[in-house]
């Protein structure tokens, strides 16, 4: 069962080949046996999951099952789940159980999905390798000495290792797409505003977007249909009709215009990654698409702009973790100042502290114009680059990340780690949707092809990815890890 | 040296919305701590703000009432600082692009003269919670019921030159916000509080002196006292060869003095930036026009109407229009009795005297406008005498019955206007007072006017005060002069 896609499992449940309880039980068993090594989960909620699986089985028998009834899923530990720990990979929230459910969690539950547990992540979604978690690094199932990518690395690894068929992640600068690429699965970052952020713990509010990680584009379509849509509790969520993404998967690629941003194929791109991506693009040509080179001239400014805007927002968003109302509190504070200082010094990890300090600095009087305002101007230029490119072509394609998954502990310098997101970050600054699909290997480590589309063109994006998966079998490859378990 | 005082005010007005500015939690006052704070108000991880449209409408109405520009776009920003009763570590406020632009307010001074105070801008923001220092054995309790309550902060230009002007300004704002119904204006409950910026300079000097900011003063009287103290303190400092330092001070109402709190040099860098969770607020002219159409009559308009249409004196019109509750009460009395002048006399006379004596607001008056109007009607149609009317008013005040008519009936206060009945009583009094009648008849015409008082008194007594005194008077005169 663990090799099957979400769509296949849904069909199996429908046909009565197995029950939700059996399916969830199998997932829980795999987690129990494999996750000790993988470390992809922070919290597993077996009892609650089995009770919900039973409820889904009863609903199916009664003929009123939702579209995802009985399907086991995992949630990045950044989504609030009522009564269940939501740690954000931080010591600060190690003992925090949210009093409410995130909007996407509500929507998944209404659709009948069974939450199996909460997946590991870089602390407060800050990182590109999943090495910044209070709960320790996640391993890449393709090669246990490699990172799974970050910050949704727990979700990506859990799906790649067949612990769950799909999971939710969040993407602020590439945190769904890059781990999907590193783990050989499909990950979609929707348009900013397509999926409610209510109950998704904020890192950088103007960039954060939740989305699915699964084996196939078709599975991502199924999940996006469920979680997308306007939410009155999130003013930045957009009031637009949610298309039937599944129904729109079968669009022909004939005449599709693909742009290759020349800036995405320059220095620093691993040759094996480049080869795999160019091979994938040839597949598209063979399916009738037209390819041309385009330019996104402000690409080189994306990382500097991101590392001004994201830490600025983060420094403010993370102020609430002060030891007063919830989460970690230092022992025996002598006064208020001491409470704040020690609580935050003890509760936050290195990378989080680094970004809070950067953000506090760039927002402070005398620096605001030079950093924050300038970065916002750059952001507009980057967005305009994409809008101009989409005047010429339907979609853009390139590598998701410049290299395949690197070794745990290999990236010592924070700036070289930041450069991992060089192809993904501009997409968040522009707010457009992007998807990473498995497109080959560099050695034994997967390579992701990134496809980008205009705002709210998820249907097209998923269709383009799906057609590729109809013509290739990279998405069917499974790591050796966990193979011995049925 | 002659000194001039320069005063600017930041007035925080709590808006009378049912729910908070960014959440659905109730804003009702006085609930158990932390029972009116939802996940959003508590700053729980993952929560997001949603702007309360009513708060926007109220701010716009205020802007229109002070002739301010209403910019098409305004923006919410985050003001970042750490404080235990500030749940998110930032206050969502407006700085660069507030919802209300420059405007002005007309103030009326005690001598009846008016002048204009400029408003720099007004912006929307959320209130913080409250730190509780008592009953926690050296620890601090936090009550977040107030967190997220919508505030409109009205910032004046430094246009006021005396404590009296400052008080007149706050009173004018108080009248506007209560007329608009956008705040209950209850200063004791903190619905209106102000930060007072005070400086002094030698008369004739153009440059401002160094100012001190007195935080959170919450009554008209305290504003006056705080300014008076501060002006004296600053002048003394300078005259003693020292200087005023820019600082934040607190007013101590027990001692009528201000005290230093912290100097501005230690002030926070608030790191304002646009709140990424809220979209810019855009208000087109149709929206603004719609709000304008919903506005009630404002105090100055009301004053003019009372004077010009109802024929009240300028003084009466001013007093009656000074608060919305007073004006509404007066108009209701007028509508019932049909006479503006009588209604004005009663509201400002008997009613106000009673309210003042028992320290009640007009909204708490035990006599309703309906009841008072009914009472005045009975005076006007001669059912009761003016003297009996005072009795009836007192009985209404004491809650003896629901209406003037019921009291008149129960106490038998109806004036006897039946000539026959009065004549009967007069004949009896004349028959019972032969000595006085003889004296009267012997007296000069010039002395008779005084002497008739005795007979009037006797007749009134006989009628238990119900006889119409004018009738008694003229009939008595006729009868005594006859013989």
Summarize the structure.
Chain B: InterPro entries: Asn/Gln-tRNA_amidoTrfase_suB/E, Asn/Gln-tRNA_Trfase_suB/E_cat, Asn/Gln_amidotransferase, Asn/Gln_tRNA_amidoTrase-B-like, GatB, GatB_C_1, GatB_Yqey_C_2, Gln-tRNA_amidoTrfase_suB_CS. The complex is a heterodimer of chains A (486) and B (483). Chain A has 486 residues and is an alpha/beta fold.
Report the oligomer. heterodimer
Taking strands numbered 1, 2, ... along the chain, how are they ordered across the largest sheet of chain A? 1-3-2-4-6-5-10-11-9-7-8
Order of helices and strands of chain B: EHEEEEEEEEHEEHEEEEHHHHHHHHHHHH
The coarse overall form of chain A would be globular
Tell me about the biggest sheet of chain A?
A: 11 strands, mixed
- Terminus-to-terminus distance of chain A: 8 Å
Helical element count of chain A? 15
Residue share in helix of chain A: 25-40%
- Specify the helix fraction band of chain B: 40-55%
End-to-end CA span of chain B: 82 Å
Q: Largest sheet of chain B, described in full?
A: 8 strands, mixed
Q: What number of domains of chain B? A: 3
Over the alpha carbons, how many angstroms does the gyration radius of chain B reach?
31 Å
Report the order of strands and helices of chain A. HHEHEHEHEHEEHEHEHHHHEHHEEH
Mean pLDDT figure of chain A? 97
Spatial order of the strands forming the largest sheet of chain B:
5-6-9-1-10-11-12-13
SS-based class of chain B: alpha+beta
Average pLDDT score of chain B = 92
Largest interface: A-B, 43 and 28 residues
Q: Overview of this structure, please?
A:
The complex is a heterodimer of chains A (486) and B (483). Chain A is α/β, with parallel strands linked by helices and 486 residues long. Chain A is 38% helix and 13% strand. Chain A is built from 15 helices and 11 strands. In chain A, a hairpin with a 2-residue loop joins strand 10 and strand 11 (445-452). In chain A, helix 9 (302-317) crosses helix 12. The mean pLDDT of chain A is 97. Chain B is α+β, with helices and mostly antiparallel strands and 483 residues long. Chain B is 41% helix and 18% strand. Chain B has an 8-stranded mixed β-sheet with strand order 5-6-9-1-10-11-12-13. In chain B, strands 4-3-14 form a 3-stranded antiparallel β-sheet, with no helix packed on it. In chain B, strands 2-15 form a two-stranded antiparallel ribbon. In chain B, strand 11, helix 3 (220-239) and strand 12 form a beta-alpha-beta unit. In chain B, helix 14 packs across helix 15. The longest helix of chain B is centred in the middle third of the chain and has 20 residues, at 220-239. The model of chain B has no long low-confidence stretch (mean pLDDT 92). Classes of the chains: A alpha/beta (486), B alpha+beta (483). The A-B interface holds A 79-80, 86, 88, 93, 96, 98-100, 102, 197-202, 204-206, 232-236, 312-313, 315-316, 318-320, 322, 324-326, 336, 340, 360, 363-365, 368, 372 and B 39, 42-51, 78, 80, 82, 84, 87-90, 142, 269, 271-273, 276-279. Chain B: This is Aspartyl/glutamyl-tRNA(Asn/Gln) amidotransferase subunit B.
């Amino acid at each position: 069962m663990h090799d099957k896609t979400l769509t296949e499992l849904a069909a199996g449940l429908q046909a009565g080949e197995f029950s939700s309880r059996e399916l969830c039980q199998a997932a829980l068993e795999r987690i129990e046996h494999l996750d000790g090594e993988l470390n992809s989960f922070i919290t597993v909620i077996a009892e609650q999951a089995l009770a919900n699986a039973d409820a889904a089985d009863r609903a199916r028998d009664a003929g009123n099952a939702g579209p995802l009834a009985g399907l086991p899923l995992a949630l990045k530990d950044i989504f609030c789940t009522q009564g269940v720990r939501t740690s954000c990979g931080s010591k600060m929230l190690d003992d925090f159980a949210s009093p409410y459910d995130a909007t996407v969690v509500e929507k998944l539950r209404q659709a009948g999905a069974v939450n199996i547990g909460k997946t590991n992540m870089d602390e407060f979604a800050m990182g590109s390798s999943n090495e910044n978690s209070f709960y320790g690094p996640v391993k890449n199932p393709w090669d246990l000495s490699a990172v799974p990518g970050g910050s949704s690395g727990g979700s990506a690894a859990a799906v790649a290792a067949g612990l769950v068929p799909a999971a939710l992640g969040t993407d602020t600068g590439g945190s769904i797409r890059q781990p999907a690429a590193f783990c050989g699965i499909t990950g979609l970052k929707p348009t900013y505003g397509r999926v409610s952020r209510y109950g998704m713990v904020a890192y950088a509010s103007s960039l954060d977007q939740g989305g699915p990680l699964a084996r196939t584009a078709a599975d991502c379509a199924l999940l996006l249909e469920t979680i997308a849509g306007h939410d009155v509790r999130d003013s930045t969520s957009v009031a637009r009709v949610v298309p039937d993404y599944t129904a729109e998967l079968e669009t022909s690629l004939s005449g599709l215009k693909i742009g290759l941003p020349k800036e995405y194929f320059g220095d620093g791109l691993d040759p094996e990654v480049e080869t795999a991506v160019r091979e994938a693009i040839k597949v598209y040509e063979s399916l009738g698409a037209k390819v041309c080179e385009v330019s996104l001239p402000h690409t080189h400014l994306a990382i500097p702009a991101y590392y001004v805007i994201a830490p600025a927002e983060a420094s403010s968003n993370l102020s609430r973790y002060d030891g007063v109302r919830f989460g970690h509190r230092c022992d025996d504070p002598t006064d208020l100042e001491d409470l704040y200082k020690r609580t935050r010094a003890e509760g936050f990890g290195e990378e989080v502290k680094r970004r809070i300090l950067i953000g506090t600095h760039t927002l402070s009087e005398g620096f605001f114009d030079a950093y924050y305002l300038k970065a916002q101007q750059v952001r507009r230029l980057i967005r305009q680059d994409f809008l101009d490119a989409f005047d010429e072509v339907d979609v853009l394609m390139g590598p998701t990340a410049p290299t395949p998954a690197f070794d745990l502990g290999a990236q010592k310098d924070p700036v070289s780690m930041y450069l991992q997101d060089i192809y993904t970050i501009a997409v968040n600054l522009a707010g457009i949707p992007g998807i990473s699909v498995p497109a080959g290997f560099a050695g034994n480590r997967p390579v992701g092809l990134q496809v980008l589309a205009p705002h709210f063109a998820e249907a097209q994006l998923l269709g383009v990815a799906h057609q590729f998966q109809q013509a290739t079998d990279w998405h069917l490859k499974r790591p050796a890890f966990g193979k011995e378990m049925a | 040296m002659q000194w001039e005082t320069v005063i600017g005010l930041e007035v925080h007005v709590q808006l009378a919305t049912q729910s908070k500015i960014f959440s659905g939690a109730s804003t009702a006052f006085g609930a158990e701590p932390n029972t009116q704070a939802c996940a959003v108000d508590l700053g729980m991880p993952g929560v997001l703000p949603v702007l309360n449209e009513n708060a926007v409408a109220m701010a716009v109405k205020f802007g229109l009432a002070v002739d301010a520009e209403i910019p098409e776009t305004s923006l919410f920003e985050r003001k970042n600082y750490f404080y235990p009763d500030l749940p998110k570590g930032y206050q969502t406020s407006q700085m660069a692009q507030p919802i209300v632009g420059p405007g002005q307010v007309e103030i009326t001074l005690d001598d009846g003269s008016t002048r204009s105070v400029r408003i720099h801008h007004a912006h929307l923001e959320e209130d913080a919670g409250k730190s509780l220092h008592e009953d926690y054995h050296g620890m601090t309790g936090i009550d977040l019921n107030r967190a997220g309550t919508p505030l409109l902060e009205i910032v004046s230009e430094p246009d006021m030159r005396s404590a009296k002007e400052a008080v007149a300004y706050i009173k004018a704002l108080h009248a506007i916000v209560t007329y608009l119904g956008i705040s209950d204006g209850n200063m004791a409950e903190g619905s209106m509080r102000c930060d007072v910026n005070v400086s002094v300079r030698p008369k004739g000097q153009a440059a401002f002196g160094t100012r001190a900011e007195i935080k959170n003063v919450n009554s008209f009287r305290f504003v006056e006292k705080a300014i008076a103290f501060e002006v004296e303190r600053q002048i003394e400092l300078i005259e003693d060869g020292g200087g005023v330092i820019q600082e934040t001070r607190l007013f101590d109402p027990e001692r009528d003095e201000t005290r230093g709190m912290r100097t501005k040099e230690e002030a926070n860098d608030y790191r304002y930036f646009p709140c990424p969770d809220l979209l810019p607020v855009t208000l087109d002219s149709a929206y603004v026009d719609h709000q304008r159409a919903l506005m009630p009559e404002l105090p100055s308009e009301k004053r003019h109407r009372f004077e010009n249409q109802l024929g009240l004196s300028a003084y009466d019109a001013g007093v009656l229009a000074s608060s919305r509750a007073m004006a509404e009460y007066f108009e209701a009395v007028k509508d019932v009795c049909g006479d503006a002048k009588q209604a004005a006399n009663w509201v400002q006379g008997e009613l106000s005297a009673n309210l003042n004596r028992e320290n009640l607001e007009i909204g708490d008056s035990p006599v309703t406008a309906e009841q008072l109007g009914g009472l005045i009607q009975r005076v006007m149609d001669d059912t009761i005498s003016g003297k009996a009317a005072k009795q009836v008013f007192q009985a209404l005040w004491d809650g003896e019955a629901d209406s003037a008519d019921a009291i008149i009936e129960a106490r038998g206060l109806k004036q006897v206007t039946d000539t026959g009945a009065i004549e009967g009583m007069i004949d009896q009094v004349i028959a019972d007072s032969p000595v006085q009648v003889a004296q009267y008849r012997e007296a000069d015409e010039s002395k008779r006017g005084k002497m008739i008082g005795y007979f009037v008194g006797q007749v009134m007594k006989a009628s238990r005060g119900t006889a119409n005194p004018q009738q008694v008077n003229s009939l008595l005169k006729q009868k005594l002069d006859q013989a």
